[in-house]
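User: Can you predict the 3D structure for this chain?
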Amino acid sequence: MFALTGLQWLDLVFVMCLLCWADCSPSQQDDMAPLEVKFYSLDFRNVLRWKHPHKAAKNLKYFVQYKIYGDKEWTNSEHCQGIHELECDLSEATADPREWYYARVRSFSPEGFSSWVLSHRFYPQWETSFSPPQLKVTVTGQTITVQIKPPRTPLRGQKGSRIRVTKLQKLAFRIYLMHNGVEEEIHETDSCSKELVIERLRPKTTYCLQALSVTPRSGRKSLRSSSTCVNTQ
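Assistant: Here is the predicted structure, written as structure tokens:
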């Protein structure tokens, strides 16, 4: 049986300690890794955000990649390579609301790159929130006509105009009619209705209207819009 000398035992213990230190101690690069990498989405504006690592210097640069769930290869986000900001707009890269996406971020310091930090699996159609619609209100006698303008995505169509969210997601719009701060009527329209007519109101009365967007499947609601007030004749 092979026996180790005292010096050989010391060498062996030293090597084992080095291996344990390499495997068990936190690396400086992991201290530089971004924190809380998450998607935030409003009207299909899909933004990846993260936090600056606590122990890191302030001059870190960040690099972002993304991929569709199931793909093997990652793609660089061209406008988010070597940035100092703590967010990256991935709306174009995640434009199909029925796909699942991942993104990841790593930082770069004079010591080198940190490890990659992965986001949660992101599904835009389920996770995006919506703004309330815009209202354009006109009065004719005791009738109020409300034109409803759905919120728009950051994506652009063939003519260059921004695409309405209703092209990608079915929504309903709830309109509140108020007088002296009290809700008198509540109307709900679907995505196809662009106009609401409210008739037989009191003459020479001030009415205010607010609106919100509702996702029919989930029942999720947007915040209410600011009030638009008009006077009947």
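Confidence is low (pLDDT under 50) at residues 12-28. The CA atoms of residues 139 and 232 lie 6 Å apart.
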